[in-house]
Specification:
single chain; alpha/beta; Rossmann fold; Molybdopterin biosynthesis moea protein, domain 2; Molybdopterin biosynthesis moeA protein, domain 3; 5 domains; six-stranded parallel β-sheet; 12 helices; binds adenosine monophosphate; binds magnesium ion; magnesium; metal ion binding; Molybdopterin molybdenumtransferase; molybdopterin molybdotransferase activity
């Protein structure tokens, strides 16, 4: 998330009982005296109300105003109901009129990444926060610590705390940058990227295949349309009955008795015009006879011999009839180029009479595993080896996307072998994917090989699992060097490779599905990076979407992926999600 604030944001973080509010209350007059205009954001864990029952604003709010602004000569207050979920930190900050402020002080929001002063009193008996929170920029306490380089202030010396805050505000420009950095997880090192930055870079560097081919409808499942589809026919083709019943004229609905002159089944027609006093027995889907435009359902009719009566049923002219072209008229836009053909699209194309479509050619993806310790499955395990699982996970992921797979097997940790193999692969395929060998401290063969082959960047993505990622071009073909750990491989593929492959296949504007669910267990992450835990979501008995993790989250535990039906995405700005709080999930059905 990119959020730029006009003023520095400074928090006070402490366990309850430390006296945060009392300290800030005493500090504020000193700061305003020094000329600061102060905004305060206070987080409350419990439900609160600033309104008084019985007051007009209270009554109007309870009557349904989801935003209630009350104003008078001296102040105004905007109360906004947020029944779905608590508003995001940066969104809340953006509610301030920052033009009118010099600083925003925050009480609470301990788990959000932004600069904070830790308040600590030994007598409260709570642990220190600074060892686990990189965002703490100073400590104000009643004792000293020895293991920290942070500025240390005396919690009882308000003057020195005031001076610190003034100095912080004076360094405004610099601090502003820091806030943006933590909020969107930018860092100074160019090789360190947020998930979104990595995705953007990759997407900007890959292109759709240019070749188009005809494809029979039978073979078109999961291919991408290379043309817009315009309806060549009316759907339905002819006006027909929506019910089993009797067709009559719309200007002849008041009669007690009708003479049944014919019976039409679907696929057949009555070729005479229906006259006043006549009815035609008709089946669902059968064409409406000339003259008739109204159908009375069978359940409302009593027939005897050639006569039918509708027992006084109220009849509306034109009822129970589907008009020609009602679903789709000739010339209507049906699908745009770049649409993926799934079951419903297959059916739609068929209903329009297409036996063949134009699609982009299939994407060819070359695939390698790397590492001397990696052994192909299907043979007895040799000492000091692990079976190659990554190639098979990736084969599955590629199959799902309908790619043509060129399986190049396992590459030994040998620079020359790698150079030859990857060069060969890049000549045959549209994309090359490897796993393993891209993390720091690896036997660096693949890095050496890649350096000689083309322009490859080694990124560290602020995410877990899946921090190392190599991306670049070999022979003008995109190259992905995924990490070695089996879960990291899948998470990296889902986040970086899949969107790129979809774009290369010709799919337009694909977005992964993301929804919110309520955490049923505490989830921890590290501020500044995106955490992708493996999760299981389900509806609870109250019909709420909830999510739990699959348990142990080690990046080598592939079982966690197998048990999961979603990834839980914890954004860089958050380090703890508590039971009952809302968290983003990425459902995986249909993707893995
Ligand atoms: P690397 O990045 O090459 O150091 O690999 C990280 C970890 O992933 C190591 O424990 C490797 O043994 C493991 N690993 C690498 N490639 C594979 C593979 N194809 N299948 C399963 N595990 C792998
Ligand atoms: Mg390796």
């Amino acid at each position: 998330m990119k959020t730029r604030h006009l003023v520095p944001i400074l928090g006070f973080a402490a366990y309850s009982g430390t006296g945060k509010t009392t300290l800030i209350e005493a500090l504020l007059p000193k700061l305003t005296e020094a000329g600061l205009r102060i905004g305060m954001l206070k987080h409350a864990h419990h439900n609160f109300d600033v309104d008084k029952p019985g007051k007009d604003s209270f009554r109007l709010r309870k009557a349904g105003a989801s935003q209630m602004l009350i104003s008078s000569r001296n102040r105004y207050a905007l109360m906004t109901e947020t029944p779905e979920a608590e508003s995001e930190f940066h969104y809340l900050l953006s509610r301030f009129d920052q033009q009118q402020l010099d600083v925003i002080l925050v009480e609470g929001c301990k788990n959000i990444a932004f600069p904070k002063i830790e308040l600590h009193r030994d007598e409260i008996g709570k642990p220190w926060l600074y060892p686990n929170d990189d965002n703490i920029i100073a400590i104000a306490a009643d004792s000293k610590v020895n293991d920290s380089d942070l500025p240390q202030l005396d919690i009882n010396d308000l003057e020195s705390i005031k001076d610190f805050v003034l100095e912080f505000v004076a360094r405004k420009g610099e601090i502003g940058k820091e806030i943006t950095a933590t909020g969107c997880c930018d860092t100074l090192s160019p090789a360190f990227l947020s998930v979104a930055q990595g995705q953007e870079k990759i997407l900007s560097l890959v292109n759709c295949v240019s070749e188009i081919e005809p494809c029979s409808l039978q073979q078109s499942y999961y291919r991408i349309l290379a043309d817009d589809i315009v309806s060549p026919v009316n759907v339905p083709q002819y006006t027909n009955s929506a019910m089993d019943g009797f067709a009559i004229r719309g200007d002849d609905t008041q009669r007690d008795n009708y003479n049944v002159v014919a019976e039409v089944m679907a696929g057949h027609a009555y070729d005479k015009e229906v006259q006043i006093g006549q009815a035609v027995k008709i089946m669902t889907g059968a064409p409406m006879p000339l003259g008739a435009d109204t159908v009375i359902m069978r359940e409302q009719a009593t027939a005897s011999g050639d006569n039918v009566t509708f027992n006084g049923a109220s009849i509306k002219a034109g009822q129970n009839v589907r008009q020609a072209g009602e679903d789709l008229a000739i010339g209507a836009n049906v699908f745009t180029q770049g649409t993926r053909i799934e079951s419903a699209e297959m059916g739609m194309l068929a209903s329009l009479g297409f036996g063949e479509t134009k699609v982009y050619r299939k994407l060819k993806v070359a695939l390698f595993s790397t590492g001397d310790e990696v052994q192909a499955p299907g043979s007895e395990q040799k000492p000091n080896t692990i079976y190659d699982s990554n190639r098979f996970t990736i084969i599955g992921l590629l199959e799902k996307l309908g790619c043509e797979i060129l399986d190049f097997g396992i590459l030994e940790d040998n620079e020359q072998v790698m150079i030859e193999a990857i060069k060969e692969a890049s000549q045959q395929a549209d994309v090359v994917i490897t796993s393993g060998g891209v993390s720091v401290g690896d036997a660096d063969y693949i890095k050496l090989a890649l350096d000689k082959l083309g322009q490859i960047d080694f990124w560290r993505i602020n995410m877990r699992p899946g921090r190392p990622l190599a991306f670049g071009q070999i022979n003008d073909k995109p190259f992905f060097g995924l990490p070695g750990n089996p879960v990291a491989v899948m998470v990296s593929f889902i986040n970086f490779v899949e969107p790129a492959l979809r774009k290369m296949q010709g799919e337009v504007d694909w977005q992964p599905l993301k929804v919110n669910a309520i955490a049923t267990e505490d989830l921890r992450s590290k501020q500044g990076r995106t955490e992708f835990s493996r999760g299981v979501y389900q509806l609870d008995s109250a019909g709420r979407l909830t999510v739990r993790t699959t348990g142990k989250q080690g990046s080598g535990i592939l079982r966690s992926m197998s048990e999961a039906n979603c990834l839980i995405e914890i954004s860089p700005a958050v380090d703890t999600v508590k039971v009952g709080e809302s968290v983003t999930i990425i459902p995986l059905q249909g993707r893995i």
